[in-house]
Amino acid sequence: MQKTVAVIGSARREGNTGKLIDMIAKVLTIEVIDLNTKNISAFDYEHKNIEDDFLPLMDHILQHDNIIFVSPVYWFSMSAPMKIFIDRFSDFLAVEDLKPQGRALRGKVGYVVATSISKEIDDSFLDAFTKTFDYLGMGYGGCIHINCENGFQVDSYQNDINNFIAKLQSS
Ligand SMILES: Cc1cc2nc3c(=O)[nH]c(=O)nc-3n(C[C@H](O)[C@H](O)[C@H](O)COP(=O)(O)O)c2cc1C
User: Fold this and answer.
1) Which of 109, 148, 153, 166 could link 141 by a cystine bridge, Cβ 3.0 to 4.6 Å?
2) Would you write out the chain's pLDDT as a tens digit for each of its 171 residues?
């Protein structure tokens, strides 16, 4: 079992964000899980969706130490599939039987991989991840962001990508 796993939520798997995580995953030889292939419904206070794909997916993810959250910036925020996925972490806080799984997130390290058409990543985007990691007792390992306003051109980011990969390799 690999130490690191990536979870992508984008409107298109083969888009800019997908290409970026595929470059990283190829070097690290890690699995990239596409949230669009999973049946994960929005948070439900009555937990009527408890039988969907969220819990089995989390069982699998929790076998890794590092979790890479991969999302484009959509309207200064994470993508909708990623938001639905992260909202469901609330199941761990609300359902007594699931609390041990929630506790298993403590000590994991979250990383963020993102693309947008802006030079800098929005604080509103990154804060949503880092504050969530903090709330859940996870560490924060770092972020790589690529500006795709002129398409997916990574040449000027190769150093950043290498540094991001090196951080995960040495973790
Ligand atoms: C619905 C939507 C909203 C977007 N909102 C933003 C935004 O707020 N800031 C930004 O810089 N780029 C924004 N973009 C541009 C995307 O972040 C950018 O094109 C990204 O690389 C797309 O990744 P993808 O190919 O994985 O979808 C938006 C794109 C879409 C489709």
Assistant:
1) 109
2) 579 999 999 999 999 999 999 999 999 999 999 999 999 999 999 999 999 999 999 999 999 999 999 999 999 999 999 999 999 999 999 999 999 888 999 999 999 999 999 999 999 999 999 999 999 999 999 999 999 999 999 999 999 999 999 999 998
The tokens for 101 are: 């799984």
Q: How far is the CA of 149 from the centre of ligand 1 (A)?
A: 9
Whole-number Å distance, alpha carbon 151 to ligand 1 midpoint, is: 11
**Following DSSP, what letter does each residue of 72-139 receive, concatenated?**
E-BTTB--HHHHHHHHTTHHHHH-GGGHHHHHTTTT-EEEEEEEESSSS--HHHHHHHHHHHHHTT-E
Rounded CA-CA distance 11/91 in Å is 24
pTM over 0.70: yes
CATH superfamily of 4-169: Flavodoxin domain (3.40.50.360)
Helix (H) or strand (E) holding 70: strand 66-72
Measure 59 CA to ligand 1 centroid, in angstroms. Answer: 30
